[in-house]
Amino acid sequence: MAEIRLEAIKKNYGRTEVIHGIDAEISDGEFIVIVGPSGCGKSTLLRMVAGLETITSGDIHIGDRIVNDLEPRERDIAMVFQNYALYPHMSVFDNMAYGLKIAKVPKAEIDSRVQEAARMLELEPYLDRKPRQLSGGQRQRVAMGRAIVRKPAVFLFDEPLSNLDAKLRVQMRLEIKALQRKLGVTAMYVTHDQVEAMTLADRMIVMNAGVAEQVGAPLDVYANPASLFVAGFIGSPPMNVLSHEIRPGREKLDPGAVIGIRPEHIDLVAPGAGLIDFDVAFCEPLGAETLVHGVTAAGDKLVVRIDGAVTLPADGVPMGLAIDPAHILAFDASGRRSEV
Amino acid sequence: MEKRVVFNNRWLPYLLVAPQLLVTFVFFFWPAGQAIYQSAFIPDPFGLKTQFVGLGNFEYLFGNRYYLESFSTTAIFSVLVTVSSMSFALWLAVLADRVIKGSSAYRTLLIWPYAVAPAIAGVLWLFMFNPFTGIIAWMLFQVGYVWNHNLDGGQAMALVVAASAWKQISYNFLFFLAGLQAIPKSVIEAAAIDGASFWRRFWTIIFPLLSPTTFFLLVVNVIYAFFDTFGVIHTITQGGPQQSTTILVYKVFADGFVGQDLGSSAAQSVVLLVLVGILTVVQFRFIERRVHY
Question: Domain range for residue A121?
Fold first, then answer.
């Protein structure tokens, strides 16, 4: 059990700075998700916490220790890798027991801890098998088991679900969350999938190009994105971005400034009855909901999310858009939120 | 599903494998057949006529003290060559795998000895260890150690082992390095997080995962030590002193082409052939089981 504190973490590869100073505090037992597009430095950040990458400057605290110069094994952490990184020549049992054997845990205790983890993860029938004889989901569980048996202070997950198929991903996502709740361990989880981030996180760190754009609870980040990047990255389909002012009684937008509206905050009404008019280009019916794509009168592309039960508007039909101005967010030319 | 190649012309497949078959026949089956045939005869001292003796050559060989000694010499020699060249190559490969700056330069340099012919390698080592003019022999003398591999059988053995092993290190190094680089980095990182020190990781993760490479190299190195080291021995010691470096393949040459006893030489070739066959089978049957693919 431990809290983690990151203070002004920077990372350079040669002269290129890839992480530009990250600050974050993760409290004991919290599930924090680092989310961002590929190449944003999120895995590097996690690997620095794990001790697999050196830190160029800044401090990492785990519990009450500064761990900057400690070896991975001295940091009291466990990590689950994207490709599981199981030891291919060892049985499932030996894979899970490896760390305990090194720590010279008595044999009887190793046995009981591995059995307990296997029971929790439903791996009991497979303890004698080699990793290659397991399915992707089972391998994933073994990797989790290997982390659990060591009872570390911190769990680190590096995109653990991205090698699984979509259905299994959803199932394992729930299992990971349940397990973390049950064990009460602090967890750091890296993913590029914003749905995973939203569902798993107590709080999330949205990263972009080596910078933490926003740190906050998923729904806060969703409702109140700090920047245009976060607004576009969190939420699917992303927030609509308009370069023309539509709010009544307002001046034109400053050059480069934009306004944003979530697709679900817009309703389709009869032409002329809404805030602005809009030509339907095409519809994507998804069953529970339908995404209506189109172009506003001012020329901005826009997506509207409507109930799937509503009759689809035909392509090319003009419609009105009813929007509550309170849901419209403004961003300045640099992409940061502005109050106007 | 197995992919099968279908040829329209009936003779084309035979034509395509013919060169390989021809080479195998001319350089392997024919000489091997000749050796088996000749091993049953004794030629007269002038080579004018031969006499059929059945298994007489073999009977004589296995009653011959020098021949039996040559077996143990071969065993010592090949174990030393294989173990030293493989372990040294593995050590170099582990180091080269960790180097990031200038790694390709190291690798290229480490591969060079492989391009040296065995006889040349022998002469290079001979220059360094010549009892009268060799620089290392001189250095050893300065620290009070007399080096003369022309007189001391142990020193002679050490020298041919060193020269033979040195030449093979490059080859082993290449395969070990490729093997090391094929091990997923994350597996080793996982072991590091699990608390394993570098040596622990090496012996419990890296070495077992390298075992297919190690096994392959074991087979290749034993065969190398048995046959390809002829040039090294011929240039450095000619099998001496007192036959202390006469390995089986050198004895085949010495008895056949120096001693002109072609029948015995042929019989020795047959023994060697059978021995290597048995060794290879043993390696595959018993050692391969311990290999994790």
Answer: 4-227
Q: In what order do the strands lie in the sheet with A65-66?
A: A16-26, A4-13, A57-62, A65-66
Q: E strands of A209-275, at which residues?
A: 211-216, 240-242, 258-261, 266-269
A135 and A184 in a common domain = yes
Task: Please tell me which of the candidates B195, B196, B292 has its beta carbon nearest to residue A89.
Answer: B292
pLDDT digits (tens, 9 = 90+) for A30-41: 999 999 988 888
Instruction: Answer whether A87 sits within 8 Å of B191, measured CB to CB.
Output: yes
Residue A179 clears pLDDT 90, i.e. is over it: no
Of A82, A88, A99, the CB nearest to B194: A99
CB contact under 8 A, A98 and B191: yes
Give strand pairing partners of A290: A285, A306
Q: Is the pTM of this model over 0.90?
A: no
Q: Which of A191, A215, A211, A212 is nearest to A202 (CA)?
A: A215
Measured in degrees and rounded to the nearest 5, phi and psi for residue A313 equal -70, 145
Range of the domain at B72: 57-290
**Chain A residues inside the 8 Å CB shell of B187:** 85-88
Domain match, A137 and A260 both: no
Q: Chain A: residue nearest B195 by CA? A: A73
Please answer whether residues A70 and A51 qualify as being in contact, where contact means their C-beta atoms are separated by less than 8 angstroms.
yes
Whether B164 and B171 have beta carbons less than 8 Å apart is answered as: no
Chain A closest-CA separation from residue B193 CA (Å): 5
pLDDT in tens, B5-40: 777 788 888 899 999 999 999 998 998 888 888 888
Asked if B250 and B236 touch (Cβ cutoff 8 Å), the reply is no
Last residue of a domain, one of A173, A194, A227: A227
**B99-122, pLDDT tens digit by residue?**
767 778 887 888 888 888 888 888
Question: Residue A232 domain-assigned?
Answer: no
Looking at the structure, do residues A151 and A16 belong to the same domain, yes or no?
Answer: yes
Report the residue from B189, B195, B197 with minimal CB separation from A99.
Answer: B195
